[in-house]
Specification:
The chain has three helices and no strands. With 138 residues, the protein is mainly alpha-helical.
Length: 138
């Protein structure tokens, strides 16, 4: 058996870093989709025929929001552990990956904030959860 050369290790680091960046890009797209879904979920017109939204879109948002939220959160946790462990030893990939992960976490928290803002307001006001007052913009 031969020992791995320096170029083999560099190639392996580039491959691992590229895979981590690709996975993070998919998470970024999922986060953007989550923000859109969260905005739709909190829009009263979205759930009525008056909003003009397709029924299929309502079903997709209703069925996939929480699995997508959980899957995105778990994926972000795994990629964070991979990035901050010795797997991503290359400094240039570490900096790029860290920036992308911070952006993805910010988008995930934005989606969660949009999704739960109305519910917190309803608890404070004593109205049922998921209640949308027709006079309020949210």
């Amino acid at each position: 058996m031969t020992q791995p050369t320096q170029s083999d290790e560099e190639t392996q680091q580039i491959l691992i870093g590229s895979v981590l960046i690709l996975v993070t890009l998919f998470i970024f797209v999922a986060d953007c989709l989550l923000i859109w879904f969260a905005t739709l979920r909190e829009n009263q017109a979205f759930w009525t025929y008056a909003g003009g939204y397709p029924i299929l879109l309502r079903d997709i948002v209703y069925i996939t929001f929480f699995p997508l939220l959980i899957g995105t959160t778990m994926s972000l946790l795994v990629v964070n552990m991979a990035c901050f462990s010795k797997i991503c030893a290359s400094f240039r990939f570490f900096i790029l990956e860290t920036f992308m992960l911070l952006l993805c976490w910010a988008l995930l928290f934005t989606a969660g904030g949009i999704a739960f803002k109305n519910n917190v307001q309803n608890i404070i006001n004593g109205t049922p959860l998921h209640h949308h007052d027709s006079s309020s913009p949210s």
